[in-house]
Amino acid sequence: MKFRTANHHVWRPRRSVLCIAIGLLLAGQAAAALAQDAAPSTNATVNLIRLMVKKGLITQGEADGLIKQADDEALQAQKAAATAGPADGAQPGDVRAVYVPQNVRNEIREQVKQEVIAQAKSEHWAAPDALPEWLDRISWYGDVRVRDESWYYSRKNSPDFINYAALNQNGPYDINSITQGVAPPILNSTQNRLNMLRMQAHIGIKVKLGDTVTAGVRIGSGNDNNPVSTTQTLGGGLVKKNLWLDQAWVRWQPSQYYSVTAGRMPTPFLQTDLIFSPELNFDGVIGHGEFPVTDDLKGFVTAGAIPIQYTSNNAPTQAFGNQKYGAGDKWMWATQLGFTWKFAEDAQWRAALAYYFFNRMQGQLSAPCALYTGINYCSTDNTVPDYMQWGNTVFLLRDIVPSTSSPTNYAQPQFVGLSYNYHVADLVNKVDFKVGETPIELQAEYERNMAYHMRAAFDRYPNGLGVPVNNYLGSSTPGGNGPYKSGPVGWLLRGIIGTPQPMALNEWNIALGYKYLQPDATLDGLTDQNFHLGGTNAKGFILTADYGIAQRTWLSARYFGAKQVYGPPFTLDVVQFEISTKF
Fold this sequence. Notes:
By secondary structure, this protein is an alpha+beta fold. The chain contains seven helices and 23 strands.
């Protein structure tokens, strides 16, 4: 920073001038402080430096150096003036005064003030009790949402949907008991749920550990440890609510163009809410790179390894060494290639092609399993999914050998496994532009499970074993009374008018979309719980609106109208009213 006076000499503030500027900022206290000194100097600069020593802004050693520097500069100025002699008609002894306009003086004072404050903050010498440097590397953030939510079921819905996720979670379930009138877990499909108060809360911290390393930790609410939602239902006897470790990650970014993140992290992919829930976080290791092509066109690639499920090291607990489960770990290997193109002043197009390879998700029929002998496991129990919602085609995993003592009436405790693998190819597009001053975003996404072959659910095993027990056209009971029906395709279209994320008073948006997911288009366990209460085999409209009522606070209204793609009727409308805030 530099200024020129009327005689064009360049003035460069050094540490002494910065100190003088601080003294000017303390001018309101200077008179009282100097009045207490025994022998104030006739030099104002010296007095201000002494005052700064007294207040602990600089040390005595630093003050002595500054005073000496000021004396040396004053002596040099006197010698220069004596050598130059009078100019412009001035007589010896005249004092030349250069007029500096008030607005220029104000500007100089303000710029010096800002520079001094900035230097004081960076060097932590502006006050004796300045905050430690490490606090500058930490930032906090969070959000709180409170929601009124209602579920409306059609009167035409079928009443007998088996809850296979609950069957696995609480199982195994003895299917032989069905003949005795004991039903398996059944989904509610007829009774409305009105005016549930629910909430979400998150608080997180980011720490910059150096020029290239950042870490983050976030905790969040949630009814349970499911991966796709942090929604907590209020009530329940007014008991305290749960907190979960929602994120914990470390990112190494040696360049502005690429980074590697490890741990549990927010989604690294360009996506909508078609395949993955917006609240889904990813475990694993993710690499991301960006490649500028022109000023307006940038390519990017994201790739990673995400563990989905590990086989327990000691399972089955009753099995001996060679009967323990081998390595059957399930992973998602992901690669996404895309670009961002700013094709106009207020318009850009983002697009990406991804391949999500879910390894070993398909269940395996067990070897003949003689449970009647007293063992409590079969050879492929480890292929049961850790978490599922509903929609994917499933089959009974255990090939149970009839009891020798009762070959026609014996216990058949069962788990279910997924009938297919999931190798999902996905193309997502987002176009942002403005009409006048109003932002608009258009979203389009199409995905297909490349591992889906319908007949594989019937041809893998002989003698009718391993056939699907759900997704039959006419009935939801095992075996059904109509043809089996599924599919590998999903797509979404959505338009958003207004500010996508209102963060100020009177900011708003309205969005309308349509989502379509066939039963085996993707893993049902990772989808959004708001639409059809999660899972696949669902289609319908999504209408939302947001309006900012204060800084970082907004109201939301959402409607999710969905019904089954295939199978017996199951129509469900979800209505939400919400107040949200971010900090």
